[in-house]
Amino acid sequence: MNLSKTPSKVLVVDDNADNRALAKAALEDEGYEVLIATTGADALAAVAAESPDCVLLDVRMPGMDGFAVCSRIRAMPEGANLPVVFLTALRDVDTFDQALRAGGDDFLTKPVRPAELAIRVQVALRLRRMSSDLREHHELVRRQRDDLMRLQLQKEQLTAFLVHDLKNPINSMDLHAQLLLRHRDLSTRARESVEHIRSESRSLLRLVLNLLDISRAEEGGLAPQFEDVDLQQLVQEVMEAFEIKARAASVSLTATIEAPSLVADPDLLRRVLENLLDNAVRHAPESTQIRLTAQSHPSGIEVRVADEGDGVAPEFREQVFERFVQIESAGRQLTRTGRGLGLAFCKLVVETHGGRIWIEDAAPGAIFCFRLPHDPRTREA
Predict the structure, then answer these.
(1) Is the overall model pTM greater than 0.70, yes or no?
(2) If we measure between CA atoms, which residue out of 232, 212, 198, 197 comes closest to residue 167?
(3) Considering Cα of 179, then 184, then 186, then 190, what sign does the dihedral take?
(4) What angle do CA 344, 345, 346 make, to 5 degrees?
(5) Nearest residue to 58 (alpha-carbon basis) of 25, 11, 101, 97
(6) How far apart are alpha carbons 373 and 103 in whole angstroms?
(7) In this predicted structure, what is the pLDDT of residue 140?
(8) What does the alpha-carbon distance between residue 371 and residue 358 come to, in Å, rounded to a whole number?
(9) Is 227-380 in the same CATH topology as 9-129?
(10) Angle at the Cα of 15 (from 13 to 19), degrees rounded to 5?
(11) Which of 1.25.40.10, 3.30.565.10, 3.10.20.30, 3.40.50.80 is the CATH number of 227-380?
(12) How deeply is 106 buried, as exposed, middle or buried, from its count of CB atoms within 10 A (0-12, 13-18, 19+)?
């Protein structure tokens, strides 16, 4: 909260009305005086006339873009030490480097959370009032922060490239496996091997898509496409797809669906079910049963996937939904591995639908449960 007697002035520069309104509301709630500019030219005029204490600057604007505006601000007598925080929907290394070269002090990617926006402005204003000695220490920390941010963006960019490049060969594997299955003279053993190839290629594709969607969500880009879903049919299709994997693991699958339909993103919901079944198959002992049930509740549709494995100790039931976490040693130990994306993806999708996901004790085993609202669109409205 800004407690100074004279409110600090923050200039918000953005050509999008919704973005301006969000920033204005968030900052005024913290006690700042907010100035508005919709173009680069207006921003330069406001800096000269109003002497703001901080500038929030959009990158993409018609005419003069944010980088050019920042460079011009730095050339003004009153702009050399004026804090400039860039706001952009572009999350990549090139944009980040351009922002630094133009003289930006900080870098936020859209959609911006109001609380984070207020904190960044508060920090920028405090740094402006620092002594020269403290400012030198801050510059060192800031360079280290910028190096870490650049590495993070490079990692995200590499992840995106890998995901997109892997999808084509995986789909090609599956296509060739389907072509082989069309041969009537294929022996039973060969047919089982080809079906196993198809099953594993689908698992690999699911892993790749999980990684992609988790990255999208971090950048605010995961938007479910809601439509009416026949849950009975969807579950049947998923169970049939997992029949080969279940048979190879010597476990059986059963489904009891008492909730016929709901509104959801069918592709994302399918992959939630696939990830939960894959998790159950990997942990279920031989000659046991995995049970999938769906029931309607007043607050939504509840789906439960139960296995008879070692279960998950209560103290780990929140952690298993974090990325790259897997449970080993009968639920008594957490280990970091490269495959722990499935449950993180499930939590992400369920919460994006306005639902919740949790784990219960099956005694023996674990029950992974999630509940979705009947119609997330009504909740949003």
Answers:
(1) no
(2) 212
(3) positive
(4) 90
(5) 11
(6) 46
(7) 62
(8) 9
(9) no
(10) 75
(11) 3.30.565.10
(12) buried
Cβ neighbours around 134 below 10 Å, total: 12
Which of 240, 266, 270, 267 has its CA nearest to residue 253? 240
Contact 252, 289 (CB under 8 A): yes
Q: What pLDDT was estimated at residue 335? A: 44
Rounded Cα distance between 198 and 173, Å, is 8
Which one-letter amino acid corresponds to residue 137? H
Burial of 68 (0-12, 13-18, 19+ CB in 10 A): middle
- Average pLDDT, consecutive stretches of 10 residues, N- to C-terminus, the chain (381 residues): 70 92 92 94 93 92 91 89 87 79 84 85 79 57 67 67 72 83 86 84 79 67 85 94 89 93 92 93 93 93 94 88 65 46 88 94 92 81 43
Tell me the domain boundaries of the chain: 9-129, 152-218, 227-380
Structure-token match 């280990």, residue found: 335
The top-level CATH class assigned to 9-129 is: alpha beta
Non-local (6+) Cβ contacts of 375 within 8 A are 226, 262, 263
